[in-house]
């Protein structure tokens, strides 16, 4: 049950929704949509983005066309798909997560909107929130601090926890900063960390088996698109190995114990505003990047009961959503 709104956006002037009436009547704007996962896994985000476009007066086939490219879970395909969109000379590319650096490497001229990206300033995707520079703008969030908070929440529900695992995607630009932040929190909580890099669906079973062999009974799952796309599989394996898990919202909704994170469909809906500004002629370097500063906390009470856990009332009252 949802108990409060959770997203506020900072980092610059909030962009007011504008209609599409400035588009030339005979011209159809072309948007490239670049995604790591499959089309079906992106359905809720595509729906949210389309809804945002409709609110701004865009009608597919009339004044806008979306060119979709899906990597189907293969990170190595993203550069080639980004190059395809550049070759089509689209007006703007919408992407997120690892799609952002792939698109950025493919073009320095076509505007890029990041529907969401963790710590975009720290990894050099944009110069700053207020003055992003270059050809990228959109929304970001602080991934290192987010994952550190996840570990804190695990410790609240499992006070005797002394060891925890952390899932990271191989080669992600954010891995070192995430480990630094979560490491500080772990030391303060008296928890030893075991980081595990997982980049393929076939590797998940072995990763969980290794955690179980090391008697690690709790897991923090990162926000890479791979983990979001495979949240149900991760939740299922966490249940199989009786490992407490926390990660992006999709994890708890797929059967994981808890989630703490941003609402990705909401951010894709918001991305339509950035796309609209760009299609009307504003340069991405002049559009301040927005920062998500409020996050949603979800507890799967059904999973907690299966694991034999009693969720403290102090946690339940703080949850935005409780799955029963």
Question: What does this entry look like structurally?
Answer:
With 324 residues, the protein is α/β, with parallel strands linked by helices. The protein has two domains: 9-142 and 262-292, Rossmann fold (3-Layer(aba) Sandwich), CATH 3.40.50.2300; 143-261 and 296-323, Rossmann fold (3-Layer(aba) Sandwich), CATH 3.40.50. It is built from twelve helices and 14 strands. The strands form two sheets. It has a seven-stranded mixed sheet. Strands 8-7-9-10-11-13-14 form a seven-stranded mixed sheet, sandwiched between helices. The longest helix is centred in the last third of the chain and has 16 residues, at 264-279. Residues 1-25 have low confidence and may be disordered.
Helix/strand layout:
Layout: E1 9-10, E2 29-35, H1 43-55, E3 64-70, H2 78-87, E4 92-95, H3 99-106, E5 112-118, E6 136-141, H4 143-157, E7 163-168, H5 175-189, E8 192-197, H6 204-213, E9 218-221, H7 225-229, H8 231-240, E10 244-247, H9 249-253, E11 258-261, H10 264-279, E12 290-292, E13 296-300, H11 301-306, H12 313-316, E14 321-323
Parallel strand pairs: 2-3, 2-4, 4-5, 5-6, 6-12, 7-8, 7-9, 9-10, 10-11, 13-14
Antiparallel strand pairs: 1-12, 11-13
Helix pairs in contact: 1-10, 2-3, 4-5
Give the overall average pLDDT.
90
Structural class: alpha/beta
Strand content: 15-25%
Shape: elongated
What low-confidence regions span 5 or more consecutive residues with pLDDT below 50?
1-25
Intertermini distance: 9 Å
Architecture of the largest domain, CATH level 2? 3-Layer(aba) Sandwich
CATH topology term of the largest domain: Rossmann fold
